[in-house]
Amino acid sequence: xxxxxxxxxxxxxxxxxxxxxxxxxxxxITKAITMGCCxxxxxxxxxxxxxxxxxxxxxGVHPSDAYKFNNQEADRVVAxxxxxxxxxxxxxxxxxxxxxxxxxxxKHAFITQLEIANEHKLPVSIHMRDATADxxxxxKEHKPIYxxxxxCFAGSVETAKILINMGFYISFAGTLTFKNANKVLEVAKFLxxxxxxxxxxxxxxxxxxxxxxxxxxxxxxxxxxxxxQIKGRDMEVMARVVMQNALTLFxxxx
Length: 254
Ligand SMILES: [Zn+2]
Fold this sequence. Notes:
The protein is an alpha/beta fold. It is built from nine helices and eight strands. It has one domain: Alpha-Beta Barrel (TIM Barrel). Helices cover about 40% and strands about 15% of the residues. An eight-stranded parallel sheet has the order 1-2-3-4-5-6-7-8. The radius of gyration is 17 Å and the shape is globular.
């Protein structure tokens, strides 16, 4: 039994969601959390979770969509949080990689949603890209009381140490299997088992040797296998550790 703690099942690349979900279930993935990128995609995630037992969802506005974050958008995100299968506020965070970002707009959406998560007693799924210093500063000042995970982690061992000392989980995606993965390999080697999660971030970042194809949650065992190999563990042992960590961080992921 495997869990994909971060994917985007409502992405148009996975439009045939029925066959995607049936296929990953056949591969042994019993739980997949489809993360929202805005109110619209969060609402679609909720609908998919109503239809499929293995699908759970996050509700939140991604930093790249932070320009959409107004009171109305926030109300729609909040309205989903009491849904029995809404396991997290996410994905939220900061992304200074893509051209045209507005730091103030992103920080406002991030901070507001961290406060929303605390009010609604939910953990958070955090996206952090080229924004380590600002993310750490905000997480210190607006600490998620119910925990969180740094998804598709691309930071250093030093940053990972700071984060796990604050109680955060670190999630590994297909990037762990890439040939140029030295930095994330170091993090995987260092990270104690109790802070490890895995995800596909599908439809993006298909793991090696599937790189360049449309990714789906069926590939989560490829990432788990790599993580197990790096840590010198049996793959099934690693899978059980990650499942237990996911159930601990996301109590609604029953
Ligand atoms: Zn994502």
